[in-house]
Amino acid sequence: MPSFSLVHLEFLGWAAMWTLGLSAIAFIGGGLVGFAVALMRISSVHWVRYAAIAYIQVVQGTPLLILLFLIYFGIAIVGFQEVPAIIAAGIGLTIYSSGFLAEIWRGCLQSVPKTQWEAAECLALTPWQRMTRVILPQAMRIATPPTVGFLVQIVKNTSLASVVGFVELAQAGKLINNSIFEPFTVFMVVAAIYFAICFPLSTWSRRLERKLNVSRR
Amino acid sequence: MTYQFDFSALWAFWPEFLQGAWLTLQLSAVSTVLGFVLGTLCAIGRSDGPPWVKFLVASYVEVIRNTPLLVQVFIVYFGIATLGIKVSANAAAVIALVVNVGAYTCEIVRAGLESVHKSQLEAADCLGLSKPQIYWHVIIRPAIERVYPALTSQYVLLMLASSITSQISAEELTAVANRIQSDTFRSFETYIVVGIIYLALSFVVRIALWLFGLVVFVRKRKLGTAL
């Protein structure tokens, strides 16, 4: 029986690239959708706000695994057969991260003091100007640390894309394990690679947070 | 779109859904309690222990928080097997979940411990409280009360994350769903039903933890103010 070798390590390296790619898709897609939902969440129109609340509650109240299964089987029902796994996984993770990012960013938008919103209105700025020139620059400073922190969650959760047959790091680990059956070694290496991706992000997030707190103290 | 939704095939399986949901709740409850104990001990060790304990706890927390639960579950399940010890899938699931949530609990509780003001400790000292008394009455209880909302969210997430243990065939709700959908070929409907059950469970867990908080935090219940 072959044992864990450089070939396997190379395979895991490639799979790690797919993990990163999927994370990027999830973050960009989730960021766009999540920002829209965050704006809806603080809208002054009742039904828009409630729709956003319902969306966030449903996404945060169901496991990502179930979400992925729903997308995977749902795509087939809508009529697309043979969709590549990356699309199903990408959509699922986009929805997942949008639900969480929306809630994080809503908090950041609302933490900009109310007087700033009022002052912008008094200066006759349009809603667009108010958002882009006054609120967002301030909200973004507050939003950066938790957003980077959430990136870690995204990277870790791409491991669940393995259930819809997408070969990323965790799935690659499973495949290798099936052929050489050294589960402990294989999954330790897989965990180490995840750690190598996530730990710098966590550290960065913490440093940003500390920096933000210094200026606020 | 010509697809006909058919939920009727799933009716026959309601006892199994129920059983799966029950096991999910059991797994989460056990992991929550044990994870809370582990996490709190780690938090105390990290904020007040000797340097080597601090280092150990810090590494534990970082390693767990920066690797996916799925991989942790695999390492526990297959790893324990290679050591020659046989554990059931459910036991492996609980171990993995406890180790996982312990790290998150540690971080949350540590934030609570750090938020206790120094003057409180000095006041307790002046009142002649012993070290264990100070720990229990002045540090731990107010700290937990303060971070309780964050802990609640974490334990709801834990309940949802327990779905991952279906990957090592612990027979909880998601695993039940996987089996039923392969029996009935009603995949989409099955996962919709299970999604709704999870949604309901997350409300139940949230409300249960809220009620538990009302019972435990007497001060908050009587005064109604935040610490």
Provide an overview of this structure:
The complex is a heterodimer of chains A (217) and B (227). Chain A has eight helices and no strands. Chain A has 217 residues and is mostly helical. The radius of gyration of chain A is 21 Å and the shape is flat. Chain B is mostly helical. Chain B has a single domain (13-223), classed as Orthogonal Bundle (MetI-like fold), CATH 1.10.3720.10. The model of chain B has no long low-confidence stretch (mean pLDDT 91). Chain A binds chain B through residues 57-58, 60-67, 69-70, 73-74, 77-79, 152, 156-157, 159-160, 162-163, 170, 173-174, 177, 183-184, 187-188, 190-191, 194-195, 198-199, 202, and chain B through 1, 3, 62-63, 65-72, 74-75, 78-79, 81-82, 156, 160-161, 163-164, 166-167, 174, 177, 187-188, 191-192, 194-195, 198-199, 202-203.
Mean pLDDT of chain B: 91
The succession of helices and strands of chain A, N to C, reads HHHHHHHH
User: End-to-end span of chain B in angstroms?
Assistant: 56 Å
Total tally of structural domains of chain B: 1
Q: Count up the helices of chain B.
A: 10
Would you list the SSEs of chain B in sequence order as H and E?
HHHHHHHHHH
Question: Which second-level CATH architecture of chain B applies?
Answer: Orthogonal Bundle
How much of the sequence lies in strands of chain B comes to under 5%
- The radius of gyration of chain A is 21 Å
**Gap between N and C termini of chain A, in Å?**
61 Å
Global outline of chain A: flat
Overall pLDDT confidence of chain A: 91
Rough outline of chain B:
globular
Q: Determine the fraction of residues in helical runs of chain A and give it as a percent range.
A: over 70%
Q: What kind of assembly state do the chains in view correspond to?
A: heterodimer
